[in-house]
UniProtKB/TrEMBL annotation:
Lineage: Bacteria, Bacillati, Actinomycetota, Actinomycetes, Micrococcales
Pathway it works in: Cell wall biogenesis; cell wall polysaccharide biosynthesis
Pfam families membership: Glycos_transf_2
InterPro entries per record: Glyco_trans_2-like (IPR001173), Nucleotide-diphossugar_trans (IPR029044)
Family named by the database record: Belongs to the glycosyltransferase 2 family.
Protein name, UniProt field: Glycosyltransferase, GT2 family
Membrane in keyword set: no
Length: 318
């Protein structure tokens, strides 16, 4: 049993996947240990996502944006709404194609209760694909610089010590969010979760929890080096922004993750059937990263229909 029962708010970001969103919300309502509140951010969908929320989870705090702010903006808005409106101790985030098993939240809370120290700032689920196998896009990697003691404490909690966690399903200490702020909106998509989770975990611990299982219903069981086409520019731009401007990683970690990124980009190029598109996207990403740095979140969200109280919290955190 969970020794202490902290207040948890779930945040779902939705964009034009209403039928999958229905499954996600149904999964949240079927939790062995339900979330204390649910925030859904509709990222200016053109389908019936808002109606699905009202029908499936009418108790949810629904925020309807007038502009698509990407996953990064959606999660920033959703987390800020959770913090300012629902006073959580933990914020659990997930995509609208991520269906939680009934033990998803209770599994993470068991790990939180079991971990013996107070420097645990983030926990994440085991992510499977529709066939039940681990999803290669979200496979956890052990923290390369974790101490022997940290690894031992993580193991005792039935978990793996990690340096970053995907937004597909992860939970963050609310006080840590209040102190360090929100995902960077200008990232739009790709590496927003890497930057944010690494920033949350730096100086503390993050855990991947196998007992917490979610199903990531992507169209294919793709890995991180699968050809993304024109969207490769987001990967390149955001990773360069992260290495140059973010405080999420220490200098040695920037070297390690920089080398890993170069190797993965190389594999992507080698496997691609359309290298010309990837090459153009790479050049565009480098160009954008050199031209400017990410804007402050409140500036990036102006005109997107963010409620005043939520925008004020995002402005405060900056």
């Amino acid at each position: 049993m969970v020794a202490r029962d902290p207040r948890v708010v779930a945040v779902v970001v939705a964009y034009n996947r209403s039928e999958l969103l229905r499954e996600v919300l149904t999964g949240l309502q079927a939790q062995k240990r339900p979330a204390d509140a649910i925030v859904v951010v509709n990222n200016a969908s053109t389908d019936d996502s808002s109606q699905v929320v009202r029908e499936t989870a009418p108790e949810s705090d629904l925020i309807e944006l007038s502009e698509n702010t990407g996953g990064a903006g959606g999660f920033a808005v959703g987390m800020a709404a959770a913090i300012t409106r629902h006073d959580p101790q933990w914020v659990w985030v997930m995509d609208d194609d991520t269906v939680p098993s009934p033990q998803a939240l209770s599994g993470m809370l068991e790990a939180v209760a079991t971990y013996p120290r107070t420097d645990l700032y983030a926990v994440g689920s085991r992510v499977t694909w529709v066939d039940g196998t681990d999803h290669p896009m979200n496979t956890p990697r052990q923290h390369p610089l974790a101490t022997k003691a940290t690894k031992g404490w993580a193991s005792a909690a039935g978990s793996l010590a990690v340096r970053s966690i995907s937004f597909v399903s992860s939970m963050y200490n609310a006080d840590r969010i209040r102190t360090l702020g929100y995902p960077i909106v200008d990232y739009f998509l790709w590496n927003d979760d890497f930057e944010f989770s690494s920033r949350m975990i730096r100086g503390g611990v993050g855990l991947s929890v196998p007992a917490s299982v979610v199903t990531h219903k992507t169209k294919a069981r793709a890995s991180t080096d699968t050809d993304p086409g024109e969207r490769f520019r987001f990967e390149v731009r955001n990773k360069l922004w992260l290495f140059r401007y973010s405080k999420a990683l220490r200098p040695l970690e920037k070297i390690l993750y920089g080398a890993s990124s170069l190797a993965r980009w190389g594999r992507t190029f080698l496997k691609s059937p359309d290298r010309a598109t990837l090459r153009a996207a790479f050049v565009q990403g480098v160009k954008e990263a050199r031209e400017r740095k990410p804007r402050l979140n409140a500036e990036a969200l102006l005109g997107a229909g963010v409620p005043a109280d939520v925008l004020e919290e995002i402005r405060r955190a900056a």
